[in-house]
Amino acid sequence: MASITLNALAHTYTENPTKPEDYAIREMTHVWEQGGAFALLGPSGCGKSTLLNIISGLLKPSNGEVLFDGKRVNELKPEERNIAQVFQFPVIYDTMTVFDNLAFPLRNIGVPEHKIKSKVHEVAEILELSDQLKRKAKGLSADQKQKVSMGRGLVRDNVSAILFDEPLTVIDPQLKWKLRRKLKQIHEQFNITMVYVTHDQLEASTFADKIAVMYNGQIVQFGTPRELFENPTHTFVGYFIGSPGMNFFEATLENRDQQDKLVFGKEEISVSDAMLARLKAMGANKVKVGIRPEFVHVWDGKNNDAFAVEVDYVEDLGTYKILSFIFQGQMMKARLSEDQQVPSGQIYVSFPEQWTKIYVDEYLVDITDSAIAVDQAQEISHAN
Ligand SMILES: Nc1ncnc2c1ncn2[C@@H]1O[C@H](COP(=O)(O)OP(=O)(O)OP(=O)(O)O)[C@@H](O)[C@H]1O
User: Fold this and answer.
1) Which atom of ligand 1 is nearest to the CA of 53?
2) Which of 13, 54, 163, 169 to mutate to test the pocket of ligand 1 (most atoms within 8 A of CB)?
3) pTM of the full predicted structure?
4) Helical (H) or strand (E) element with 83
5) From ligand 1's centre to the CA of 46, what distance in Å?
6) Counting atoms of ligand 1 from 1, which one is nearest the CA of 14?
7) Domain ranges within the chain, ordered by starting residue
8) Pocket of ligand 1 (CB under 6 A)
9) What is the pLDDT of residues 159-191, one digit of tens each?
């Protein structure tokens, strides 16, 4: 078991990179703590597989270091790293029995047969494969084959970490949740560091305690599923997490009647004085405002803080409804409970200040005391 540290890591497939877009992994420093269950979540092409292959040693990074428990492993071959990797498609030997497939990694390193037998039976028991041990792998279903792949990762005692690269892609939907639960159970039992790559937010949040959201070769936020939902620190996280994703609109900081205001179209958006002061100090005239559909309040009648908007349409999704409305010419969404009635035509919506997030250059403007203290310390150190 090990912690995995990526230190100033970067990777490019281009011979002479000149710009950030030439990098599949843009410089990143990141730590996966020992024993954690993590997900690496992001859209196709953002660099997830590249990152996993660098950790397992299948790929040599262009820059930076990979450390296991603080020790540099860049020079170690994949088989010397004690990392198990489970791929999208099960990697097993069809002509061998399930037992021999599971025994293979142990026979390779010369473990005595009696030890192999007990270890294979132990892992088969956990994976519910005990009654399949004598079968040839060829006849197994896709989910059973993937379980054998996982089992091959688990039989070795000295495995530092298991990396899963979209392991449930070929599994039938009704079996996915079963395998996901199995993985969670295995994590609890073995206390192994696990990194699970997926582009599916549901898969990520049911498996992982903490999720790294990846976008354009960078980890833009690392947090619990709840943190990613309630406090996205990058607009991509707001957009990618949630169903539907966060609403965004561009607003400007304007001085009206000697007071700074955040303005969108004809409306003033309510934010705290501390936020207005912070934006002014940053010299940010244009910002993005983000609010999750779940946090938009919908009212039947006029209300002090509420804006008059036009209902566009309502989608009934069985257990909840999605209301689409037009606010100052822009389409936005609110998520409502199934029993909430929505009148047609004009309605009123409000955006609670607590859930109204402000972004500058795609990053959240954080006005908590600790965030401001860090910024000020950085400004002082730059000034010196
Ligand atoms: N062998 C390669 N040679 C050149 N470019 C590559 C190679 N492998 C990946 N890339 C590029 O690097 C970027 C990151 O790819 P990567 O496969 O790591 O992303 P991913 O997030 O795992 O995507 P997916 O979910 O589709 O597998 C992409 O732009 C991809 O086209």
Assistant:
1) 18
2) 13
3) 0.90
4) strand 83-86
5) 7
6) 4
7) 4-239, 244-383
8) 13, 24, 42, 44-50, 199
9) 889 999 998 888 888 888 888 888 888 888 888
Domains 4-239 and 244-383 share a fold: no
- pLDDT bin (cut points 50, 70, 90) of residue 280 is very high
Is 92 in a helix, a strand, or coil? Answer: coil
Name the token pair of 198: 């997926």
CA distance to 119, 139, 151, per residue, from 114 (Å)? 9, 27, 18
pLDDT at 374 over 70: no
The residue whose two tokens read 């000034």 is: 383
Per DSSP, what are the bridge partners of residue 320?
337
Phi, psi of 266 (to 5 degrees): -95, 0
pLDDT for 100 beyond 80: yes
CATH superfamily label, 244-383: Nucleic acid-binding proteins (2.40.50.140)
4-239: CATH topology is Rossmann fold (3.40.50)
Question: Per the structure block, which two tokens stand in for 266?
Answer: 């004809």
Report the atom number in ligand 1 closest to the C-alpha of 199. Answer: 25
Q: What are 383's two structure tokens? A: 């000034």
